[in-house]
Amino acid sequence: MGKYALILAAGEGKRMKSKVSKVLHKVCGKEMVNHVIDVMRSAGFEDVNVIVGKAREQVMAGTSSRGVSYSVQENPMGTGHAVICAADYLEGKDGTVAIFTGDAPLIRRETVEAMYSRHEANASSATLLTSVISDPTGYGRVIRDGDEVLRIVEHKDCTEEELKTPEVNAGMYMFDIKELLESLKELNNDNAQGEYYLTDVIGILRGKGKRIGASITEFDETRGVNSRAQLAEAEEIMRERIARFHMENGVTFTDWRSTYIGADVAIGMDTVIHPGVSIEGNTFIGEDCTLYQNSRIVDSEIGDGVTVTSSVILQSKVGSCTAVGPFAYIRPDSVIGEHVKVGDFVEIKKSVIGDGTKISHLTYIGDAEVGRNVNFGCGTVIVNYDGKKKWKTVVKDNAFIGCNTNLISPVTVNEGAYIAAGSTITDEVPKDSLAIARAKQVVKEGWVARRNEEAVKGEVVK
User: Fold this and answer.
1) Pair (190, 287) in one structural domain
2) What's phi and psi for 354, nearest 5 deg?
3) Residue 385 known to bind ligand
4) How far is C-alpha 154 from the geometric centre of its chain's CA atoms?
5) Residue 432 annotated as binding?
């Protein structure tokens, strides 16, 4: 028996007041619809179909990395109509289809798994996801007889007794595929809105004597996001959930409320994170790291025992026991070795830095391959761009680069070579040699006194 998922993502989301499709707005760095897709996949629903509408080009582009298929709802005519538009996807399949909304990013894998287990254990034709809340005003009530759902009643249609029911419908379901497809044929839009409602399928199945079940979860998980304010609420809930997850796994936050940790970030135990830190994308932070204030790390891999101080690391790798910052900038596609020092106001771009190398301050390294135990003096610049093309520089093991050196790419500095401070290097430096590339010092004694005398006369001193 197969497990399939439909994600409803065709809504226009007018209340968001945005040119971006509602389901592509992000919560903790990930699009809402991708939160739902990833959760369904992690719960074992590998075959996912996304139902898209007017903004389908946007939604398809925003979910293309997830390997999903698509169905199109040209004109929004209700949730039941959306599922009818996916009938071709379901045709010929056997098993269970989960139907979830793409604007409910707080749903958890454990909840989907529990819902599926209940659906299978009870051999239900349909299972609803529900919540019990203290103030259910405005929500459709779930009327039960023990474990079995009798009906869903909209708030305006409830009797006084039904209004006392605290269990509400979350709008997420699991169905036996064949029974769902048969029921969709009987669905009609004979209502004031002229729409096809998925909730009516429950009534159709119930009318046939089919078993309808329900699985209860926390209300926060079922929150749909329809406005910027609700987006902010979802963000706050998700941020706390992420922070607590990492704290339970051995990470220390000195103030988790002032940090930003993305949904797909992994952090090793005994790492300490200070205020103002932002860790985004698919980032891995090792154990025993210290991330000091106002650092940003995106789509990067950080080894064990690394310290990062007020610095930016983008799409790069940093080896264990390396120190970065303060105020360093590691740009994409850089690989920094172990026991490296990347000091203050250092910028590294698309370069490989070997173990034990020291780049202490005020240095730019771009398009370079740097070996082990190299020392870069203050103010070194690798001049990698000639106005048309980027060129590569190679600095081999144990080289020493003096302060205020320019390395004009392409150029190679071989093992153990020394470069005198203030040099501009344009040619290869041989192994174990000293390169000096600067003008010879000239001293003109008495020049200042002559200058002062001639200045009075209006003459120029040479």
Assistant:
1) no
2) -75, 165
3) yes
4) 37
5) no
Determine the straight-line distance between the first and last CA of the chain, rounded to whole angstroms. 94
Q: Which one of the listed residues 81, 119, 274, 361 is annotated catalytic?
A: 361
Instruction: Mark whether 26 and 143 lie in a shared domain.
Output: yes
Tokens of 394: 């190679």
Tell me the CATH number at 430.
2.160.10.10
Residues 208 and 303 in one domain: no
Q: Residues 30-85: pLDDT tens digits?
A: 999 999 999 999 999 999 999 999 999 999 999 999 999 999 999 889 999 999 99
Query: Closest Cα to residue 97, out of 76, 73, 115, 72?
Result: 115
Average pLDDT over the chain reads 95
Residue 228 assigned to a binding site: no
In order, the DSSP letters of 248-296 are: HTT-EES-GGG-EE-TT-EE-TT-EE-TT-EEESS-EE-TT-EE-TT-E
Domain total for the chain? 2
10 is in an annotated binding site: yes
| pLDDT per position as a tens digit, 292-347 | 999 999 999 999 999 999 999 999 999 999 999 999 999 999 999 999 999 999 99
Identify the domain containing residue 103 by its residue range. Answer: 2-222
Please tell me whether residues 10 and 153 are part of one structural domain: yes
349 a known binding residue? yes
406 is annotated as contributing to ligand binding: no
Mark whether 280 and 213 lie in a shared domain: no
User: Is 361 one of the catalytic residues?
Assistant: yes
Higher per-residue pLDDT: 36 or 452: 36
Contacts of 12 (CB under 8 A, 6+ apart): 22, 53, 54, 55, 76
Q: Which two tokens stand for residue 377?
A: 């003096």
Calpha distance 275→258 (Å, rounded): 5
- Any binding-site annotation on 9? yes
Residues 105, 44, single domain; the answer is yes
Query: Which tens digits make up the pLDDT trace of 155-165?
Result: 888 888 889 89
